[in-house]
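--- STAGE predict ---
source: upstream dedup step, 1 unique chain passed
mode: sequence only
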Amino acid sequence: MDTGDNQHLSELRIVLMGHRRAGKSSSGNTILGREVFDLKRSALCVSRHGKVADRHITVIEAPGWWRNIPAEESPEILKQEILLSMSLCPPGPHVVLMLMLLFTYGDTLLDTSIEQHIKSEGKDLQWLLDKCGNRYHVLNNQNRSDDTQIKELLEKIEETVAQNNSCHFELDRKFLQDMKEKRRAEEERAKERMKMIKKQRENIRSQMSE
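--- STAGE serialize ---
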């Protein structure tokens, strides 16, 4: 695939994933070139769309996990919501951008090169880079007027899509349906708990008034 200015994918579907306060919302705004993601943290997936560099772009922001708690040890409902983010851009995302390999604080590097920064972060980051084919990109979310950084990111994404034979990620339908059913059941249990708490509070107020 030629990823030059004349030929590129007309549509790209992107999922942003990472821990809380990693800069997912800011990065989504930078990619789409406007303030479409609320910078307040959300426990739900958020989908936004836009046209960038002659491409129709869908960006999904998955909810973040706590930085000091591994994702696999996060609450079950959070893990389900993160997985469900894959289903918000049918038939599935072209790429998942992990905000460790999408470096979102490019403005803080100053005179330090990204290679020096990666080396200073130690073996864990290098291991993740190796697993992801040594693909990474630097974003300066404080300088959204710089179109070059987004064009380069989109070209890197297209190169990755080409290496994957133009395939996209797709959740198994049965797995997705089971997960949605499980999520609905948990939401119903949460509603019942809230009703019980409300009733208990009303009983306490009634007893106190008596």
